[in-house]
Amino acid sequence: MIRAMRNRKTSLTAIVAMTALAQSSIAGAADAGAKPRTDEFPAPDGKTVTFTCIKHASVRISYGDFEIEIDPVRTLPPATDYSQFPKADLILVTHEHFDHFDKDAVAALRKDGTAVVANPAVRQMLGYGTALANGESAAIGDGVAVEAVPAYNTTPGRDKFHPKGRDNGYVLTLGGFRVYVAGDTEDIPEMAAISDVDVAFLPVNQPYTMTPEQAARAARTVKPKVLFPYHYSETPIAKVAELLEGSGIEVRIRDYQ
Q1: What is the DSSP track for 70-82?
Q2: DSSP-based three-state secondary structure for 243
Q3: Which residues of the chain form beta strands (DSSP E)?
Q4: Which of 99 and 25 is assigned the larger pLDDT?
Q5: Taking the domain 31-252, which CATH number applies?
Q6: Residue ranges per domain, the chain?
Q7: pLDDT mean over 145-158
Q8: E strand or H helix at 240, and its extent?
Q9: How far is CA 222 from CA 115, 145, 177, 216, 251, in A?
């Protein structure tokens, strides 16, 4: 069941006690073939949070046996057969672009009781689910909460791609473990209000999202313990890790082209 909490402008306030990670590092950047597809982290409540790299902006998160799919898309290469995936307990869609929203992928992942959360435009296109606008949040089951945060372009001439107020990023709280999935955005001022982040996903591909320099600035603002650059297409993504050397943010590069 989703319990919506409207007009909350601050992020969800779970405090996470984890050992601070030391110097920034490039994990798995040297050999694309050797990059792991899953990364595991302990949540404060004792459960395990597992991230599975699907592609581009599509991420699977398992919190214990609670399954979350973010921006599932079937046909964007490599093609993904979501009918073979575990059914989702929660599906999040950031916005309506083809590399983020696929109605058939959402349908393939649904079961009785699946919570589908999207920005208002996608909710209208789907005809079901819960619409969250920027600053709104919802509690979903035991230990799971989600807040919609702004995601938009700021570079002149590029705001047509992602205008302010339309699209979502999301902050997930999973048993006290906090995840920021930025969606398609540049390094916007609202990121300063996002705190206590364990893992962040930041997009890196101009002209649609951020340059490596913008992504590094965004990471220094949000201060996640671990950063996964994603949505990076042909961007020389190792540059993000280089720019964050000495920041205390661990950069893990996976196959999110």
Answers
A1: ES--SSSSSP--G
A2: helix
A3: 2-5, 26-27, 38-42, 48-55, 58-63, 66-70, 90-93, 115-118, 130-131, 137-140, 144-151, 167-174, 177-181, 199-203, 226-230, 250-252
A4: 99
A5: 3.60.15.10
A6: 31-252
A7: 95
A8: helix 238-243
A9: 27, 19, 15, 10, 14
